[in-house]
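Problem 3 from the worked examples.
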Amino acid sequence: MITLRPVTDADLPFLFRLYASTRDGELAPLPWSEEQKQAFLRMQFEAQRSHYARHYAGGRFDLVMADGAPVGRLYVHRGDREIHLIDICFLPPYRGRGFGTRLLSELLAEGAAQGSSVSLQVEKSNPAKQLYRRLGFIMAGDAGLYDHMTWQAPAHGAGASARQ
C-alpha cells in the first residue's frame, strides 16, 4: 500500500539519499573520491531543491510511503489548466513495481476530471519515457537534455484508466 505525505525538513536526509540514488551510475566511472562525489551530489541536490522552490511555488511536494516507510517522492504543480509533474522518483528497490504507474494514473484521472492537460520533462535517456508513452504522453518539445511531454484528456471525457 502506498500513500503520500507532505515533505518536511526532517525528510532532507532521505531526500538526499533518494537524489543520490538517481546519479549513482553517472558518477561511478568518475575518478573522484567518495568525498568529492558526496560534495558534488550535495551541491546538485541543493540546486535542484532551490530551483523547484523558486519555479514551482505553490507546488505539492510529497513523499511516497510504502507500508509507512519513505520509498520515493512525487512533486506536482497544479495550475488553472495544467497539472505539471515536477518530479517522480523511487529508491532502486521500489522502481519497476507499479508505484509510478499507479500515481501517474491517479494524476491523469485528476486531469481528465478537470479537463486539464498533464505535462512533464524527462531526460532523453530516462527509461521512464516508455511508461509515459504507454500512459498516453506525447512529445511536445525538445528542451536540451530533456524532452517535454504532455498528456491531454480524451475529448469524450473518459478517464485515464480507460486508456490502460
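Problem 4, a separate protein:
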Amino acid sequence: MASFLRRLATSIDALNEWIGRTVAWLTLGMVVVTFLVVVLRYGFDVGWIAMQESVTYMHALVFMAGSAYTLKHNEHVRVDIFYRELGPIAKAWVNLIGTLVLLLPASGYVLWISWDYVVSAWALLEGSREAGGLPLVFLLKSFIPLLAGTLVLQGLALAADSLLAILGHAKR
C-alpha cells in the first residue's frame, strides 16, 4: 500500500511540476506583450484589443494552471497560527484533514459547478465581447475545470504524503 501511495503521489507531483514550469513561461510573455502594448500605444498611437486581452488570458492561465504547482511547493496562502511550530506528524495530520475537509470538497464543487458553464461556452464558441478581441473565451473558460482537476490531483498527492508520514514512512 505504501509503495502504491508513493508512486501515485510521485506521478501527480511530476505532472503538476511539468504544468507549473511550462505555464511559468507565460509570465515572460505577459511582460513582453505588456511592454509592446505600452510602446505601441504611447509611442505610435496604435493599439489592438486582442493584444491587450492576451495579457489577461496569459495571467488567467498562469493562475489557473499554476495553482496545483503552488500547492505542491507549499507556497499557497496559509493562515498559519500554530502550523509552523508543529512537528512533522502533527503537520501531516493538519495537511490530511485540511485536504479531505476543505481542498477536495471545494475543488470538487468548482469542477461540478463549472461544467455547464464551460459546455455552454463551447456550444457558442464564445468569443470576446469587444470588437477586435480574441475569439477564444471558450478555451479560456476550459481552464476552470482544469484548475479544479489539478488541485484535486495535487490534493490526493498531499493526502498520500501525509498518510505516509503519519504511518511512519519516510518522505519521498
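Solution to problem 4. The helical segments are 2-23, 25-44, 49-72, 88-124, 137-141, 143-166. The chain has one domain: 2-166.
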